[in-house]
Amino acid sequence: MSLLSDLINLNLSDATEKIIAEYIWIGGSGMDLRSKARTLPKLVTDPTKLPKWNYDGSSTDQAPGDDSEVILYPQAVFKDPFRRGNNILVMCDAYTPAGDPIPTNKRFNAAKIFSHPDVVAEEPWYGIEQEYTLLQKDVHWPVGWPIGGFPGPQGPYYCGVGADKSFGRDIVDSHYKACLYAGINISGINGEVMPGQWEFQVGPSVGISAGDQLWVARYILERITEIAGVVLSFDPKPIPGDWNGAGAHTNYSTKSMRNDGGIHVIKKAIEKLGLRHKGHIAAYGEGNERRLTGRHETADINTFSWGVANRGASIRVGRDTEKAGKGYFEDRRPASNMDPYVVTSMIAETTILWKP
């Protein structure tokens, strides 16, 4: 086994200029990540200079068997924390051979919104709080929970320390460092209210890069849990009953909101989000109705509300923002399994482009 680990850790740049590029894309469910690797003659850091590639879309539920070719367009490049050296991870989106985005390509529309001059001028910043649950592989029950049983009630686990309160920290810390190595703007991690549940935050990121970075951070986490023999769940309510669900709270600001008097822009934006509440909820993740019950730090799914420092509201404005009269707000509605391309672009479209 030691020879195996020596080979895995081989530094290619000692022997060759060639590098390995791992192309990553989103599969047919909209949540499953896929990837495959290819050799390139030398390091490339600009995605526009990377070759397009293809895959069998009939095996990912994205194309029929008799016309199965789907084309990968490289969109963002990160350093590879697994192979290290000059090797790279490449976030791609998917197109038909004729050049049309396939139906599950949500990045294409998001990029159109983020390249609109009015949106570009506002420099939308995002900070996404990605919650997730670690499950024991064979029983699909949270790590640290007795098989078939339950731990003590919620309370001691949030940001908890100790063998009876914190489960899976080695995975979480490995992921934190791997994301920093990759060049993802990961800004923190913490243990969550339900034992076996954790959160990482990505941002501040501008525009489309928020989606690229969150998807690659999810990919890295999937790879690390694969190594650890643990199952990663983005289910918004993995355990029914008196346990917190999992969300992806999305913090947001525009240039106008960050400037003096920005609180008035924030209030106008929240008003617009309220008018489109149903449309946003429909796009904010599957199974979210099990999470947004009005309990466990959520607002009821059918009611739009906002408040200062209120974690039971749809939209929370921080005390600092209220005090400064400018800043950002947090959309607490997105589920942990939301597509960041959809959520970030939808918030920008509603608050900047839409004229009710």
UniProtKB/TrEMBL annotation:
The keyword Cytoplasm does not apply. Pfam families: Gln-synt_C. Residues 106-356 form the GS catalytic domain. It comes from the Eukaryota. Its EC number is 6.3.1.2. The keyword Nucleotide-binding applies. SMART domains: Gln-synt_C (SM01230). GO terms for molecular function: ATP binding; glutamine synthetase activity. GO terms for biological process: glutamine biosynthetic process. It catalyses: L-glutamate + NH4(+) + ATP = L-glutamine + ADP + phosphate + H(+). Keywords: ATP-binding, Ligase, Nucleotide-binding. GO terms for cellular component: cytoplasm. Residues 19-99 form the GS beta-grasp domain. Belongs to the glutamine synthetase family. This is Glutamine synthetase. The lineage of its organism: Eukaryota, Viridiplantae, Streptophyta, Embryophyta, Tracheophyta. The gene is LOC111294234.
